[in-house]
Each structure stands twice: as structure tokens, then as C-alpha cells.
Amino acid sequence: MRRFITLILFLCCISYSICDKCNVPPEFWCSSPEIAAKCEVTRQCQSYFSTQLRQADMVNFTLYFESNCPDCKNFFRSQLSPNYEKLSGIMNLTLVPYGNAREQKSGSGKWKFTCQHGKEECIGNLIETCAIHLMKNISSYFPFISCIENDQFAEPQDSAEKCAKKLGVDFKSIKECTNSDLGNKLEHEMAVRTDALSPPHKYVPWVTLNGVHTEDIEQQAEKDLVKLICGAYKGSDKPAICGEIKTTRRCYRY
Ligand SMILES: *[C@@H]1O[C@H](CO)[C@@H](O)[C@H](O)[C@H]1NC(C)=O
Ligand SMILES: *[C@@H]1O[C@H](CO)[C@@H](O)[C@H](O)[C@H]1NC(C)=O
Ligand SMILES: *[C@@H]1O[C@H](CO)[C@@H](O)[C@H](O)[C@H]1NC(C)=O
Prior knowledge:
By secondary structure, the protein is mostly helical. 51% of the residues lie in helices and 10% in strands.
């Protein structure tokens, strides 16, 4: 009963600030910075506050890639696709499908793209670029692009059609976009973003972490994306995946 009354008093205290003095029991002294100040224990509560959950800015992670490159597909398959959802609370992922392509302005004012893995790759880049534009929210278009990139053997366009059907994506609108001036302009924007990289990219997949690319960041991303993102996140409200212990495959004794 006494505990109950103290609890009520404490709740009134914090909701209405009716108490200017430290009239809450000691177990509540660290419950807020205001109460700690009133009870003159701010310094003593400091370490307790610092262990409380603290949000921080999301880690910006950008992937520059091209739709039909085996190493990009491998990066999706081994790092991004299995972990994207679990990291999505702390990772602001941006996808830039263009990679090692080249562009040239044609007579009609439209851009003409040449891709490392042929025409099919250009179509794949365009499909993904249009999907990003039309579907807007990455939690909607990531599964679609991830599905295309996880298809090992088909050309991007065939994968895209299959993936759209599987995920209920409106492929007709995407296809229309790829054949339009808008699609051409959107792909040009991907080219501009890729060509603005500093240092310029030398290969794909090429990643930036909070806008920065180094060989070390690249290697960490390719080896263990979860560790890289969890380590770069400054908040203490890390998602469960950050605490999971990775074990490699082992033959245990018997
Ligand atoms: C990510 O980018 C946004 C927008 O530019 C910025 O506000 C934020 O601070 C960045 N996050 C980190 C961890 O740098
Ligand atoms: C995510 O990154 C984009 C740039 O790629 C930026 O414009 C946006 O502000 C960022 N959002 C957050 C929440 O950091
Ligand atoms: C994107 O979709 C998710 C899940 O539907 C939602 O939680 C989030 O707020 C959306 N983000 C934006 C920027 O609309």
C-alpha cells in the first residue's frame, strides 16, 4: 500500500511538476534528468543516463552498381538482401543502378547508354531506376530490386517480369517508364550521381558510408555489412541483429 501511494505521488510529480523539492523515493531519483536535478544527484545519475537508449542519425549507405554484374549480384545475395530488413531502422540505403555504364547525348537530345554487360544490362538499370522513381518508398522497391539481383541466370528484364508477378508490382507502369523520356532522364540522373563520386569509382559494387568511400569500408561492406553498419551507428538503440554473434561453419567434435 505504501509503495502504491509513493508510486501515485511520483506519477503526479512527473506529469504535473507539482513538486519542486526532492520528494520522491531514492529508487526514482535517476528516472529523469529533471528529478535528478531536484534531488541534486545529476552527477551520480550520469552513468545511468548514458546507458539509456539513445537514438542517433541513420547511417547513410549508398550502393553504386549495375544490374547484370556478377559481383554486384553477389553483394546483394551475400550481404544486402539477407540483412536489409533487419538493418532498415538504422541504415538509410540508397541504390544507384548505373555502375560502369557510359552515356552520350544523341541528336534528339535523349541520352544513349552503353553498358558493360550489354544492352540487357542497360534495360535492367532502367527498370530498377524507374521502380525507384515509381514506387518511392525503399521498403517497397527494395524487395523488387533485390529479387532481380538474386536471380542468377536470367537476363534482368526476364527476372524483373518474374519478380513483379511474384511481389505484386505493377510491371506495366515500369515498362512504360523505361520507354519514356522520363525514364531516359531518370537514368541520366543516376549517371550524374555516379560520375560525381569523389574519388571516382574504379569498380562496382562501389559503396559509400556517410558519403565516404575507402578501400577499407568497401572490404568491410563486402565481408560483413551488419558489422559495418552496426559499428557506424552512434545510437544505443541498436536493432537485435547488431548483437547476434556470427559463427562461421564449423565441424564440431563428437
Ligand atoms: C545522413 O544524411 C542525412 C541527410 O544528408 C544527414 O542529416 C544525416 O546526419 C546523415 N547521417 C549520418 C550518420 O551522418
Ligand atoms: C537518406 O539519404 C538521402 C540521400 O541519399 C538523403 O537525401 C536523406 O535525407 C537521407 N535520410 C535520412 C533519414 O538520413
Ligand atoms: C515506407 O513504408 C514503410 C512501411 O510501409 C513505412 O513504415 C515508412 O514510414 C514509409 N516511409 C516513407 C518515407 O514514406
